[in-house]
Amino acid sequence: MQTTKQFVLLELLRQKGNWVSGDELAEELNISRESIWKAINTLKRKGNQIVSRKNLGYKYIGNESLDEDTINFYSGMRFENDIFVFDEVTSTQEVAKQYLTTHEVKQPLVFVANNQSQGHGRRGRKFYSPSDTGLYFSLILPNPSHDILKIGLLTTSTAVAVVKVLEKFYEDKNFKLKWVNDIYLDTYKVGGIITEAALDLESSSASNFIMGIGLNLATKEFPDELLGKVKGINPDINIDRNQLIAEMAQEVIANFSNYTHPNLIEEYRKRSLLVGKEVTLKLGTSSVKGEVQGIADDGSLVLKGDSGKLQSFTSGEVIKVDW
User: Where is the BPL/LPL catalytic domain positioned along the sequence (predicted)?
Assistant: First the structure.
């Protein structure tokens, strides 16, 4: 059941940019104008920009803060009771995994944070996650079949899903993908993806997958050790993060049910940053060097070594690229 605050917010969002009469809101809910005024003030305290004018009512401008109800609205009410927004967490990935220890999940859930104190990617590599300028979220994706999926393809297809949404919001940007899970602009990393399986110990199968996505949207300042390596997508504009995550989460969820489609690996290849580049691939305690020939149908990286022999790698981390 909707609260007064939720009802008022959804009405303002439906008529964003237009004036909404406070009298009409009160009449529709059969409550006092004072109750509407209190709901408006509560919404403002949560970061909603709402202007009021005598004889006109209220107009919704936007919200730079992350908000469950706003994200749910932009998702077409897809995530009602299925999205959790936090101001700060260690990492959304850890919060999602902790949630799974005490809950049985039967539908996709979204965990979003404005700030991560211990954001991380693959192999525990830190991901800088400052407040207000990025998008950091994880999804729990139930796997009813308990099959161990093709993780390589799941990661590459998710990367395509994320970039497709980014391309809608940043039409002038040419996003590229660095195998297997990094999102780049030019030679700078702007985001990353981590894929983890939650195992059912009784059946030794994957009961859920946890997809973590981190994006530096408008971040300007980075720690010294990251300078020259990372940047924000566009520090000069403010993207509506609530709308962005609503669209991106839906795209990732839709992709999960169709992640092996051949078109997705082809889309990944088109955006590959590495084809034709000399790279160093770290494999545990060893490493190999070679020229990237392409991305195989199973998502693996195809390298040509000094001998001219082709090798495919399903795991590893590209630690150096000769730009």
Answer: 78-260
240-282, pLDDT tens digit by residue?
999 999 999 999 999 999 999 999 999 999 999 999 999 999 9
Residue 269: alpha-carbon gap to chain centroid = 21
Q: Known binder of ligand: residue 189?
A: yes
**φ and ψ of 173, to 5 deg:** -100, 145
Full-model pTM: 0.92
From the options 1.10.10.10, 2.60.40.1930, 3.10.180.10, 3.40.109.40, give the CATH code of 4-63: 1.10.10.10
d(C-alpha 226, C-alpha 129), whole Å: 12
% of the chain beyond a pLDDT of 90: 85
- For domain 278-322, which architecture applies? Roll (2.30)
Nearest to 296 by CA among 308, 284, 314: 314
Residue type, 191: G
Q: In the chain, what is the straight-line distance between the N-terminal and C-terminal CA atoms, in Å?
A: 55
Is residue 133 within 8 Å of 216, Cβ to Cβ? yes
